[in-house]
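hi support,

uploading two proteins for the ticket. first:
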Amino acid sequence: MFSILEPLKINLLNVGFAKLDSKWNFTNVISPFSRLYLITSGDASVYHNNTEFKLKPGNLYLIPSYTFSSYKCNLKHEQYYISFFEETSKGVSVYSLVHFKYEVKANDLDIESFKRLLKINPNRNIVNSDPKTYTKNSILENYTTANTFLSVSKLLETKALIKYLLSKFIDDEVASKKNFERNLIEVLNYISENLHESISIESLAKQCNLSKDYFSRTFKKQYSMGPSQYIQLRRIERAQLLLLTTKDSFHDISIRVGFYNYSYFLKVFKKIVGITPSNFRKKQINI
């Protein structure tokens, strides 16, 4: 597992401190980046992964990338927050490799880490807390570009601090029980690198020296979905990212993520995301 996580790439998007009120009330939010919160006071909650989390002062919270979530502040609420992109060198999300908790108690070092990130990354706050505004193409591009202006020492420190905070949520006990097979991890890498190509379940099973049926059962046991569903989900996630960060046409994006039948791409996208690619892009960038 160490060799797989060692090349984990982290890129900061936003960091800041927010004083929120009842206007912080959004449903069905989904973004291609992860969020970390350190709660300092107030009464608010978030909902994701079929669980409602009451945001308790002194606790840390994680919302993984591409996770449908909802937010609600009843009156007043204050928090430090971080949003960031993550992936391994093979393009696989760390959430596919390790089991995470979503709520942990913060210690003094955690609190100082948030404050330090804010100090060395000034002017990286979210100006408007409406999710539709901070997923605009220009905002994503601006904050990603801002990383290039950091000094080498501050860039390394930023990445290290986010990795440290992310590590707080890893559930080592569950992760060890999962007993990830190295060949299945390699399959995830292969899928991520070849989303633009045709990927057959037979070819994936062959990489693991398993029959198609046994491979499919093993894959579903490990990742709670079959390989075909996993491939479709990763393709649609990649399409969402391209819709947010490029001006490519819908047809070009469908090809870049392995859907050569455009009508089928539209059908699968709407099934997974709930809206069409056109409405998804308009909802995110036409404010």
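and the second one:
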Amino acid sequence: MSKQRDNDADRELEQRTGKYEWVESTDLTVEAPIPNQNETLQMKKLEGKTALITGGGTGIGRGIALAFAREGAKIAICARRWGPIEATVAELKTLGADAIGITMDQGVEEDCIRSVRETLESLGGLDILVNNASVVGQVSPVASLELNEWEQAMRVNLTGLMLMSREAVKVMIHQKSGNVVNISSNVGRRGLANRAPYVCSKWAMHGFAQTLALETAKDGIRVNTICPGPVITDRLLGAMKKMADARGISPEEVKMGWEAESPMDRFATIEECAAVALFLASDDSSSMTGQALNVSTGVLMS
């Protein structure tokens, strides 16, 4: 009777827990469930999502586009120059991403409206906006600033940010979900001599982001900001050259001075910035909105 009870118990266990196989051990014989292959496959973090990335042809924007594509997103990248756009779109497609490129000037309202419209028409939706495009602006003391240089920096870096966000958020409010990731700067949280137009436009980005976050939270939209420290890109190299000329020193001296500000004795990388952008654009950061994260190798700590 005892053996019969054991057999009955085995059959009951199999009915409750599914098919089992025997796994031989050097010490004892144990039962282990056969794994379900479908359960072991992890969905990519941005599977089924569409992202629009401004300034996506080069630098940090390109790095973010590649990171998003690896996680399953469809990508639209916008920039002023077609050459870098075309090259990056080709890279995205080699990763298996559905990707398009759009030439546009973020400082022109009609271009901002068109970029969102073309994304919707070509890729079928818009779930993530990355506001990455900006201009360096005039590098000089405030006493030497030219009004047109100041206004251009504000038009592209701040007004363009607003226009892109406005058009994207219209779509996101309708669908009751969405994500806006802004790329600011470490100098969006501190001053920097000879860089007033750029610094002021980046400071203002934080106020705009927090305001937009408050306005759209109940619509399922999150708005967050990244503050990179110096990252070696073509644009940064140009900015260092301008800073060096303004101060009468070499670009290498500017670079060494900036590195010395970092407790980690180095610059952040494009890949590190892209990883944080992916975190903010994915459900990994689902409770975060209105936040600004420093990616500055310790230059900023609050």
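thanks. also noticed: Confidence is low (pLDDT under 50) at residues 16-32.
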